[in-house]
Design a protein that fits this description.
With 75 residues, the chain is an all-alpha fold. It is built from two helices and no strands.
């Protein structure tokens, strides 16, 4: 019976490269999460700004004549 063993010499460069590959995956996940959260927050901020602008327009822009002819709710 003959046993063949292969020995691979692992250098420090190999270890550092393997660690860098393992570190890249969580780093990429973090970047994707940051981009998604940033986009969601941007959309929410824009929706809030539009909401405030529309409320101000409703409050300060005079109503048309047609709106004055419609009786208020509850009458």
């Amino acid at each position: 019976m003959h046993i063949v063993t292969r020995v691979r010499v692992v250098t420090r460069r190999d270890v550092v490269a393997d660690m860098a590959d393992m570190a890249l995956v969580p780093g990429r996940v973090a970047v994707v999460l940051v981009v998604l959260v940033t986009r969601v927050l941007l959309v929410l901020v824009l929706c809030g700004v539009c909401h405030v602008v529309l409320r101000l327009l409703r409050r300060f822009v005079p109503r048309s004549v047609d709106d004055e002819c419609i009786p208020p709710r509850g009458m």
